[in-house]
Amino acid sequence: MLHIYCPHCAEYREEEEFHCAGQAHIARPLDPEACSDQEWGEYLFFRKNPRGLHHELWVHAAGCRKFFNMTRDTQTYEIKEVYKIGEQPSVVAE
Amino acid sequence: MSDLNVMTPEESAATKAAVMNQVPGPEIQGQSPLHHADLESLAQKGPKTGGVHLRELKLLGHLTLRCNAENAEQLAAVERVLGVALPLQPLTSAENGAYSIRWMSPDEWLILVPGMETFDIETKFRDEMPGHYSLVNSSGGSTVLELSGANVLEVLKKSTPVDLHPKAFPVGKVVSTLFAKSGAVIRRSGEQRYELVIRRSFADYIWLWLQDASREYGLVIEA
């Protein structure tokens, strides 16, 4: 079980209150009409699957129902930091 | 978000949408989601002593307010309507007599008022609140259970993953969390008293769950 700090509720809660919503920082192309099929396909379907640091989007589903970002090590399961949407991570892979 | 709050007076007036009084009058009998459990007669027939006391605070007005916590005009308007300021700190609540406000998320609050006053308060909000906000009467969707007694903490610990230690959960704190296989908004309203705001559709399930969870301490129904 992960013990997750919700930056909106400002306290630690159990993992079962949260859902992971996949990779964070996926920017929608500003002009989808101008995308090639490959660019659009990569935006829609292709995701990173790193061994090590990963930036993820989480939602406090049973609590405040707000989304936030989390930097997590997929190998050790250690949570490096949580930060609100719109902020940039301070812990990044080399 | 703040740019949405810059509205002309005409736009602001247009937000005063038509509201319908969901309770036409006291002559029509409302039924709580636990009507079928008949808590009144259980309170008369059942045991009078036990470790857990259960009371339904039924047919209250539940208003879900969403507005901008950084907009001082909106905060002032809420205080004019309810006589108490919105609790801006996460996981806190505020109270003014029969009115109570629970912090739900950084831009959302749950306001509980006496059922027959709901429409008046909704109308007052429409008159007072400036800018971009949302107020929804969700009274029909939930009900409130009040749990108290010497063993109330033990029953809650069986039901929810939240840390309920008095140090981590002082009087007045509010959390929305999981409760059994459903969810609840738990507020500590006294030293040994907690209020659960639960979904209407899960009311029967939680009622059965609480009977089972409190059997070993003795459950006293209060009406």
TrEMBL record, chain A:
One of its GO terms (biological process) is tetrahydrofolate metabolic process. GO terms for molecular function: sarcosine oxidase activity. It comes from the Bacteria. InterPro entries: SoxD, SoxD_sf. It holds the Pfam family SoxD. This is Sarcosine oxidase subunit delta. It comes from Amphritea atlantica. The lineage of its organism: Bacteria, Pseudomonadati, Pseudomonadota, Gammaproteobacteria, Oceanospirillales.
From TrEMBL, chain B:
Transmembrane segments: none annotated. SUPFAM superfamilies: Folate-binding domain. InterPro entries: SoxG, SoxG_het, TrmE/GcvT-like. Gene3D superfamilies: Heterotetrameric sarcosine oxidase (3.30.70.1520), Probable tRNA modification gtpase trme, domain 1 (3.30.1360.120). One of its GO terms (biological process) is sarcosine catabolic process. It holds the Pfam family SoxG. GO terms for molecular function: sarcosine oxidase activity. This is Sarcosine oxidase subunit gamma. The lineage of its organism: Bacteria, Pseudomonadati, Pseudomonadota, Gammaproteobacteria, Oceanospirillales.
